[in-house]
Amino acid sequence: MSAETVAIGIDWGTTSFRAFRFAADGAVEEGRRAPAGILAIDDGEFEDALEELVGDWLDAAPTVPVVLSGMIGSRQGWVETPYLPCPAAVDDIAGALVPLALARGRVIHVAPGLSQRAADGVPDVMRGEEVQILGAVDLLGADAATVCLPGTHSKWARVERRRVTGFATHMTGEVFDVLRRHSILGRGIEHAAWDDDAFLAGVERSGAEGGLLHHLFGVRAAGLFGDLTPERSGAFLSGLVIGHEIRAAAPVGPVHLIGEEELVRLYIAGLKALGHHGEPVAAQAAACGLFLIADSLRKGRHP
After folding, report:
1. How far is CA 158 from the centre of its chain?
2. Which of 59, 139, 188, 245 has its Cβ near the most Cβ atoms within 10 Å?
3. Are 28 and 284 in contact (CB under 8 A)?
4. Total number of domains in the chain
């Protein structure tokens, strides 16, 4: 290793594994990625997978903190960690880490997710996104921000004084996938086609009277009457559900987006169409957040 490693961070999700080893200033000395998400690990052999993927790092840096975040801490993961109620900052997460002893005698730490209850008492949860959110805010050099992580289950989070104070989850990506693959709407969609203008038309339609369920059937009817061609229908449907999400989130101020490049592009376009400003956050948000938590653990700053 070219520089002294002071911490190791691992973002271990449902479908992917990303690991980082950090220098004292938080720079990523080396990163590794593998299609070894928790669903790909046979019979819960997470320790064997960890040893195979980063065992040499553990050998070379036997005393540095190792922090794991993401779905590895879920009920389907290695060890279920409790959700930490909002508001929560980096030091709060570091103080709620769950220790886990390895066969080699090493103790690693698994991060909790975050939870909150809305004003009507309905709970919401996230696991892994909080690390990216707090990392993004640090990269922005801001104390407050609105952060969106678009995807299967999109997250909209509010950060104040570098604490996640609240958030909301929207099942936009999953609903879109179900509709286009398993509903009657999918029969009228050319799945390989895309049309940016149709996407923006869907975003605009999301503001019309009638609500989402009515708007969805409108996609079917528009196809029957030739108002929507199969080549445009998929993009229109995407814009429709993303438009409803953005309107429900009702962002104030700029929205900082973390996610895949193409999906972030669509959200920026959707936000602009609705009078908002969106901008991407650097791709290393997860790495930055993991370092902040590991550094807090290393320096004993947590409560």
Report:
1. 14
2. 245
3. yes
4. 1
